[in-house]
Amino acid sequence: MSDNKSLQARRERVVPRGVASATAIFIDKAQNAQMWDVEGRRYIDFAGGIAVLNTGHRNPAVMEAVQGQLDRFTHTAFQVSAYEPYIRLCERLVERAPFSGDAKAILFTTGSEATENAVKIARVATGRSAVIAFGGAFHGRTLLASAMTGKVAPYKRGFGPMPGEVYHVPFPTGRDGAGVEASLAAIAQLFATDIEPERVACIIIEPVQGEGGFHVAPPEFFAALRTLCDAHGILLIADEVQAGFARTGKLFGIEHSGVEPDLVCIAKSLAGGFPLSGVIGKAEVMDAVEPGGLGGTYGGSPVGCAAALAVLDVIEKDGLCARAEAIGQAIKERLRGWCTAGLPVANVRGLGAMIGFDVIDKNGKPDGAQTKAVIRAALENGLVVLSCGAGGETIRILVPLTAEDSLIEEGLAVLADALASTATGSVL
């Protein structure tokens, strides 16, 4: 079998540099929260395939469900010949969706498809075209999704012009004056100077920003957005692609706010590692699009549906929402202890087990270069962890919710060592 170095060389010959990898290791096998590369080296997984593996690598229940579906059929295209797993999954998603009234769901393949189709639905339902998103947001890499994403490099650079009528306002991170009032004032200013609210179809927001730095949208901000949307006939879209499916301690991150959205975008951990996404929405909104206006050849794959049904079972039977809360509390306590112990850690934040913190320099300022050094040191010692944030200054923890406590402790110890070994000086 090839080693990491030879595989990297082969990759560089045939795979374009536009698709980047956070590590130069090539995985041979994985189970729950552990991975082994082609050289047999073991890694603890604090990345979860970028929030895809809330139920862990190769969860036994998911694998059994997938094998059962493989023995029946793998594809018909739902638009040609429908199948029961699609219907059953939509029934369960609608049952658990954060709406008080009737709801419907449609399935796709990727997170970008989910966010773009949510906008399509909102435009038809409202008869309007404009979209409001937030600075630091990540909604995908396809063209409309890139336009909604609130970060130029690397997601927009060179790809312009972007689709029109997509506007950005500051997300209430709590930093540099970017609070709830400032964000609401920016929307008011947008309505006064750029576009009247009667032309806005939707506001799309992540309950916890992913690529933007794991900043949590305050409940009062969601309440204000709901009031604003109701006043102007605007639809509120919750992008739950990264925050959904027990990661934050609830099935959907917006549930922490007590606010009902109009549409919810889902993907990532929905199907435990198999490609599946979707949009759940209020029934009258979802039914606005005429037949044939939505869909996709692979959308709602029967294999993905089988996996997702098993994922929902695991979340319920194993109590993964409560598990996320317990994991998150323990990890945040540890991180806050590191702050007082002099490790270069600050701004610990997150909901449930969706946790981020900033790596800081000797002056106490967030430091993207230092964060990269920490991640490299962690990888050298068998821990895979990712960064995020406007300047790459944030380390995000997305360990599978099914990980054993002992494994989480082992991973945190590696992370602490990496922080200590790369520190550029005292931060006290």
Notes on the structure:
With about 425 residues, the chain is of the alpha/beta class. The chain has two domains: about 160 residues, Aspartate Aminotransferase, domain 1; about 260 residues, Aspartate Aminotransferase, domain 2 (3-Layer(aba) Sandwich). It is built from 13 helices and 15 strands. The strands form three sheets. A seven-stranded mixed sheet has the order 4-10-9-8-7-5-6, sandwiched between helices. Strands 1-2-3-13 form a four-stranded mixed sheet. A four-stranded antiparallel sheet has the order 11-12-15-14. The model has no long low-confidence stretch (mean pLDDT about 95). Pfam families: Aminotran_3. Belongs to the class-III pyridoxal-phosphate-dependent aminotransferase family. Its EC number is 2.6.1.19. InterPro entries: 4NH2But_aminotransferase_bac, Aminotrans_3, Aminotrans_3_PPA_site, Class-III_PLP-dep_AT, PyrdxlP-dep_Trfase, PyrdxlP-dep_Trfase_major, PyrdxlP-dep_Trfase_small.
Descriptive tags:
428 residues; alpha/beta; Aspartate Aminotransferase, domain 1; Aspartate Aminotransferase, domain 2; 2 domains; 7-stranded mixed β-sheet; 4-stranded mixed β-sheet; 17% strand; 4NH2But_aminotransferase_bac
DSSP, total strands? 15
Mean pLDDT: 96
Biggest beta sheet attributes: 7 strands, mixed
For this structure, what is the CATH homologous superfamily of the largest domain?
Type I PLP-dependent aspartate aminotransferase-like (Major domain)
Strand order of the largest sheet: 4-10-9-8-7-5-6
If you consult CATH, what is the topology of the largest domain? Aspartate Aminotransferase, domain 2
The class by helix and strand makeup works out as alpha/beta
- Poorly predicted regions are none
Order of helices and strands: HEEEHHHEHEHEHEHEEEHHHEEHEEEH
Keywords: Aminotransferase, Pyridoxal phosphate, Transferase
Family: Belongs to the class-III pyridoxal-phosphate-dependent aminotransferase family.
InterPro entries: 4NH2But_aminotransferase_bac, Aminotrans_3, Aminotrans_3_PPA_site, Class-III_PLP-dep_AT, PyrdxlP-dep_Trfase, PyrdxlP-dep_Trfase_major, PyrdxlP-dep_Trfase_small
Protein name: 4-aminobutyrate--2-oxoglutarate transaminase
